[in-house]
Amino acid sequence: MTKAVLTTKVDPTYDDRPEERYHFPRTYLRQVEAAVRDWIVYYEPRRTTGDVLSKGGRQAYFATARIDGIIPDPSRADHFYALVSGYLEFERAVPFRENFGTYERALTKEDGSTNKGAFGRAVRNMTDEEYDLILMAGYSHTLGLAPRQRPIGDVPEEIHPGFGETAQAPYEVDRRIVEQLVSRPFRDRAFSAAVKTAYADTCAMTGLRIINGGGRSEVQAAHVRPVADRGPDAVSNGVALSSTVHWMFDRGLLSVDENYDLLIAKSTAPDTLSRLLVPERKLRLPERPELWPAQTYLDYHRRQVFKG
Questions:
Q1: How far apart are CA 220 and CA 147, in angstroms?
Q2: HNH nuclease domain: from which residue to which, for each copy (predicted)?
Q3: How far apart are CA 116 and CA 111, in angstroms?
Q4: pTM score of the predicted model
């Protein structure tokens, strides 16, 4: 087993759904096979689509997952699906190159320039140490290494009690981070940080944004499709809500339609609920469309949770 980097675009050319599967041609079969039953990181390139002129991608690692197995694509010869589990987005996207260099050593030549041949491969195997460094950069707040990143001018979120000051990458590798990836408390903290950042610490249904005296956001991260019902820890399965609205959303008093309009279960919700919601009665969404609640999860919430 070995770790790997899997490249996927915002609007993928292949049939990728990162929280569930990764679609790839036979060219990369050996590299993906080497990572079966091990962890990978997802990388978003500069190009956002298959168009060679497209741009705007973050050129950053954005999530991790575990490859459970590989199956052939039944409709396309010489193509395969890597089936994944344990998907968890980073609380911050990690650039492939930071001030100390690249996280993947193979991406840098001896003269310090980028190895474009290696960089151009959509699947790349990597060492445990390289993987751990990316995770520590991606989950630095969850691990207590740094305040959570906020828009410029905002008060930084306090570091978790018991940890020291902000660490400068590259971090000292701590192998225990991999063990924490399957821990529910760790995953909840990482998911919460990623969702809060995507929604700029603002409740998507009330428009309220409250930061307490310690610099901590009062908004909460809600799963649209619950984890207990196989909902992933993906920002596209999350929404930032104030505590009261979060409680109502989880109990089906509130939901969201396919146009992101707010739905109220009028037979069970209190009459005063409408006063709490934004006047336009429309979910306030993150800037990046790929972080908006996915239709498949919203549909599940309306069918299985909503009491309207």
A1: 17
A2: 203-257
A3: 13
A4: 0.86
* Token pair of 74 as six digits: 């039944």
Q: 3-class SS at 86?
A: strand
User: Residue 305 pLDDT > 80, yes or no?
Assistant: yes
* pLDDT at site 283: 98
Q: Which residue has the tokens 């969201």?
A: 256
Query: What are the residue boundaries of the structural domains of the chain, listed by start?
Result: 1-183, 199-308
Q: Give the CATH number of domain 1-183; options: 3.10.590.10, 3.30.1070.10, 3.40.50.720, 3.40.50.2020.
A: 3.10.590.10
Query: Which sign does the torsion angle of CA 296, 248, 255, 220 carry?
Result: negative
Q: With a cut of 80, say whether residue 262 has pLDDT above it.
A: yes
The residues facing 238 across adjacent strands are 223
212, 240, 238: which is closest to 226 by C-alpha?
238
How far is Cα of residue 83 from the mean position of the Cα atoms in its chain?
A: 17
Contact yes or no for 259/252 (Cβ under 8 A): no
Most confident of 15-29, 86-100, 199-213: 15-29
